[in-house]
């Protein structure tokens, strides 16, 4: 972070230190509840959707070279447009760490009230986020987490471990329903060097083991269509029989499905990951191996923008008992099947 931009922001904050302090810690918009034996009770309070103080939110994310990332940016923009008291200043997406740092510096210099950052590399952007927080600008860290909680006021993201658990639980239930003894269960992971992939795989394996099942053949792709097809082809060639398969990512799932169709295989069920519209359509049609997908909603970007607005307006979440917005908000990885796919169609994204 360049010193001039921060110095300018610190000067502005110094003129109203009390307001800046309130901005950082936040205070609820809810009316104080009457004492109830010392217990704080959520009261609902004012309607937070009503127009309030004007808030300028800065937004920075990686390049939209992946369906899920593209949906993140679209959701953030759509949510900001839904509030007449919000101005969104979004930078062009980039996978260049230095360029993203420069973008964040530019947003700070422009005088934004709150920053929402999905870092291309959480570790590499941590120092920058720390400086933004030190300048009195609340940071909402979206999904890819910074190295220290000191670098954000609130983290909003998905539950990678639970994603794997729920995929494993669904497959275990299906195997039991089909009376399949000792099923052969495969896995097409994402990039193995990423913590999120490791967490998803651990959750999947833990759930299978708890159900008395074992994980069988496993390959790792790179969250791309090409690697999904290549690695799935290798897995299928090495295993003439499968009972179930979990693919971590619906974007790479396009390649996974292509490999399955090219191999003419249909003896197993497949579970996807993330919740793309493409996979939801296939699940609804029920004419292929894919029977479910485990959500990792890009709608978390909408939530991040909503929380950024509340921070900028010194409000809390109306239905929460606490005066401030939470420090962590983890989205739930619901399992989408033919039975409930219509309920989740609104969060599906294009791969």
UniProtKB/TrEMBL annotation:
One of its GO terms (cellular component) is cell envelope. It holds the Pfam family Peripla_BP_4. Residues 57-311 form the Periplasmic binding protein domain. One of its GO terms (molecular function) is carbohydrate binding. Belongs to the bacterial solute-binding protein 2 family. PANTHER family: D-ALLOSE-BINDING PERIPLASMIC PROTEIN-RELATED (PTHR46847). This is Sugar ABC transporter substrate-binding protein. It comes from Actinophytocola xinjiangensis. The lineage of its organism: Bacteria, Bacillati, Actinomycetota, Actinomycetes, Pseudonocardiales.
């Amino acid at each position: 972070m360049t010193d001039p931009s921060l110095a300018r922001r610190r000067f502005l904050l110094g003129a109203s230190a009390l307001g800046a302090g309130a901005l950082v810690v936040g205070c609820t918009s809810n009316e104080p509840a009457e004492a109830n034996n010392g217990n704080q009770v959520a009261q609902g309070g004012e309607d937070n959707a009503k127009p309030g103080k004007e808030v300028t939110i800065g937004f920075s994310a990686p390049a939209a070279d992946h369906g899920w990332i593209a949906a993140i940016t679209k959701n953030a923009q759509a949510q900001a447009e839904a509030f007449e008291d919000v101005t969104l200043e979004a930078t062009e997406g980039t996978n260049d760490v230095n360029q993203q740092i420069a973008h964040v510096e530019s947003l700070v210099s422009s005088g934004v009230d709150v920053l929402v950052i999905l870092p291309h590399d959480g570790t590499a952007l941590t120092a920058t986020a720390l400086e933004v927080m030190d300048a009195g600008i609340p940071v909402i860290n979206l999904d890819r987490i910074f190295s220290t909680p000191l670098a954000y006021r609130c983290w909003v993201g998905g539950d990678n471990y639970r994603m794997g658990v729920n995929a494993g639980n669904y497959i275990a239930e299906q195997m039991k329903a089909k009376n399949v003894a000792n099923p052969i269960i495969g896995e097409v992971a994402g990039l193995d060097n990423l913590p999120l992939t490791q967490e998803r795989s651990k959750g999947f394996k833990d759930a299978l083991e708890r159900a008395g099942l074992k994980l069988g053949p496993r390959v790792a792709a790179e969250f791309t269509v090409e690697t999904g097809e290549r690695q799935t082809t290798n897995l299928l060639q090495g295993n003439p029989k499968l009972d179930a398969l979990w693919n971590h990512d619906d974007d790479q799932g396009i390649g996974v499905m292509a490999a399955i169709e090219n191999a003419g295989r249909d003896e197993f069920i497949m579970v996807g990951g993330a919740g793309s519209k493409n996979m939801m359509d296939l699940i609804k049609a029920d004419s292929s191996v894919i029977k479910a997908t485990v959500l990792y909603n890009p709608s978390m970007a909408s939530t991040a923008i909503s929380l950024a607005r509340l921070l900028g307006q010194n409000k809390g979440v109306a239905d929460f008992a606490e005066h401030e917005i939470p420090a962590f908000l983890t989205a739930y990885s619901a399992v989408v099947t033919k039975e409930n796919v219509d309920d989740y169609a609104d969060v599906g994204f294009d791969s």
